[in-house]
Design a protein that fits this description.
236 residues, mainly beta, Jelly Rolls, 7-stranded antiparallel sheet, 0% helix, Quercetin 2,3-dioxygenase, Pirin
Length: 236
């Protein structure tokens, strides 16, 4: 079963300094039909204006993954991390028993565009933790590159997750670039397009569109036009 979720159907909040699209219920946006998919709880597509950002605030018992698309994200947290997250990077923060952090765009005259992703952890009460990896877009050309996987499965180049989830990123342009990804039909999958357009199992998708999948044995990515796509394999 394939369930498209079009960009215009998402929740939206304009705070002036922050413009955010919500794929699932978040903050003041509540839709009982879209509370998450499997153990994927949040995908917020955020754009932070220059010189602004999220002030220090708390989280707990969540795996928070950030994927930077444009600009740079400055991160600070109560674990002592203070890093810059450039485009092509994937960051994971394990909130666990409790962590405080801030995210800012310090670059003058440019917007930071990124995805804020929340995954339910495999267990509660974990020690807070932080990981960050950089990925070369060339390695995602015409294929799906796995960038995150559960701890114990993730290799040294991938972001390890305290969650039963895997994440691939791919870039597709033209008729010759395509990919297939085998799935366990007992699990769920979620596809999110960040740029351009493409087709997944014959369903046409554009930037901001998503496709929820269950009872599927394979995803087929094709017909890309300047496309960048995230694919999640998720616990049911």
């Amino acid at each position: 079963m394939l369930i498209p979720r079009r960009s215009a159907e998402r929740g939206y909040a304009d705070h002036g300094w922050l413009k955010s699209f919500h794929s699932f219920s978040f903050a003041d946006y509540h839709d009982p039909a879209h509370m998450g998919w499997g153990n994927l709880r949040v995908i917020n597509e955020d754009r932070i204006a220059a010189g602004t950002g999220f002030g220090t605030h708390p989280h707990r018992d969540m795996e928070i993954v950030s994927v930077v698309l444009e600009g740079e994200l400055a991160h600070r947290d109560s674990m002592g991390n203070g890093t810059a997250i450039p485009p092509g990077s994937v960051q994971r923060m394990t909130a666990g028993t409790g962590v405080r952090h801030s995210e800012h765009n310090h670059a003058p005259g440019s917007v930071t565009h990124f995805l804020q992703i929340w995954l339910l952890p495999a267990e509660r009460g974990l020690a807070p933790g932080y990981e960050q990896r950089a990925f070369d877009p060339a390695d995602q050309r015409g294929r799906l590159q796995r960038v995150a996987a559960p701890i114990g499965e993730a290799d040294a180049a991938e972001v390890p997750l305290h969650a039963d989830a895997r994440l691939w990123i791919g870039r597709f342009d033209g008729a010759t670039e395509s990919a297939r990804l085998a799935l366990d039909p007992a699990r769920k999958a979620y596809v999110f397009v960040t740029r351009g357009r493409l087709a997944v199992n014959g369903v046409a998708l554009a930037a901001g569109d998503a496709l929820a999948a269950q009872d599927e044995a394979e995803l087929r990515v094709s017909d890309g036009c300047g496309a960048e796509v995230l694919v999640f394999d998720l616990a049911s």
